[in-house]
Structures are given as structure tokens and as C-alpha cells.
Amino acid sequence: MNDRIATIRQSMMFTGHLENDVIDLLSLYNCPKTAEHSLRVGDEASRLAAKFGGDPEAARTAGLLHDISAIIPNNERIRVAQELHIEILPEEALFPMIIHQKISRIIARDVFHIHDPSILDAIECHTTLKAKATLMDLVLFVADKIEWDQPGKPPYLEQLLEQLDTSLEQGAFVYIAYLWNQRDRLKVVHPWLISAFEDLKAKSSAYPVREENR
């Protein structure tokens, strides 16, 4: 077992009650805001899964665990990813925050014993999404953007909720296009986000991309 994972597992008594264990671990590592955000995302993911024909309990599990890597400080994430034998893309090396989605997958699997590939895959791409996203991928991605972890109301929220009346994919595309329209101002543009944009763009015309940014 990896030393980092062993340390996390030994840091507290895990009860097997997922919600309590997630809250306790995040609180132990002084991440109470992430705990609150994760609870909200879990609830929203469950609701979206029920609405769109997915598994509400599995979606809630993904929501509770999607940001569990908050226990790893941002300045340690590249080193931890290397320790966990995670592939590090150049964009992730430049902007380590993004790699938290991959680290969360490993912690969900090795600390919380989640082995459902659909849950783990959704956790792994919840920030960037990816091409050919599954229902679970989309549910978690959209839930995370509805219950975002920044102050105030998300600037894209009204349109995202409106497009959810059409489809989950069109709701996801609202946020992807929101990022795409300001990609020149982003620190990096992750290749998974690019592939998700191209994939969803081919399926939707609901949210126009500004021509001057192409």
C-alpha cells in the first residue's frame, strides 16, 4: 500500500457510513467548506440522477467523494500524484489544482473502497469532463457546477438550469462553453475539457460560442 494512502487510512476510525466518514476526514484535515460543498453536490447529483434515469445512490457517493483530495494541499499535489503513479499531463503540472480530480479517484478507491468504475470515472473528470461522457460523468459534472464552491451566484447558472429542461448534455455544455469563451484568460486549457467541448458542441447549438474567440 502506498505510504500516503496508509497515512490517510490510519488518521481516523472509519465507520463505513460514507457521509459521516467523508465529513470527519475533511474536518480532520481542516477542510470544512469542502465538506459542506461535497454534501450539497452529493444531494444535487442524487436529484439529477433520479431525474435523468441514473442511480441516485451511486451519484450521491460520487458527489460526496469528488473533492476528497482537498486533504492534500495544492502545493503537494504533483508530488502526491507521482507517488500514486498518476499520469500527469503538462497542463496539470502547470496548474496542479486540476489534478485533484485524479487524486480524488484514488482516495475514493483505496481509502473508501469504492470500486464501481462509473463512480470512479465520474470523480476523475468532474472538473474538466471528457469526450463521450457517461450519464454518471455528466450528473456529477453538472451537480458540481450547480453547487459551485465559490462565493455568490454562478454567472452561468440560470442558463444551465434552463438547458437542463432539454437535456443533461445541454446543461453541461452551458458551463463548458462558458469556460471556452474565456479560454484565453484561463491559466491552462485541459485537453479533456477541449475534447468535451468538441463532443458536446457537435450535439448542441443551445449555447453559442463567441466567434471572436475561435
Mean pLDDT: 94
Main beta sheet: none
Order of helices and strands: HHHHHHHHHHHH
- Per CATH, which architecture? Orthogonal Bundle
Multimeric organization: single chain
- Tally of structural domains: 1
Low-pLDDT stretches: none
Number of strands: 0
Beta strand %: under 5%
CATH class equals Mainly Alpha
Count of helical regions: 12
Outline, from the CA principal axes?
globular
Radius of gyration, rounded? Answer: 17 Å
Give the helix proportion (percent range): 55-70%
Q: Could you give the distance between the termini?
A: 46 Å
CATH superfamily: Hypothetical protein af1432
By helix and strand content, what is the structural category? Answer: mainly alpha
CATH topology: Hypothetical protein af1432
Write the layout of secondary structure elements.
Layout: H1 3-10, H2 18-28, H3 32-52, H4 56-65, H5 77-83, H6 90-94, H7 100-110, H8 117-124, H9 135-146, H10 157-164, H11 168-180, H12 191-201
Helix pairs in contact: 2-3, 3-4, 3-9, 4-8, 4-9, 7-8, 8-9, 9-11, 10-11, 11-12
Which descriptors apply to this entry?
214 residues, mainly alpha, Hypothetical protein af1432, 58% helix
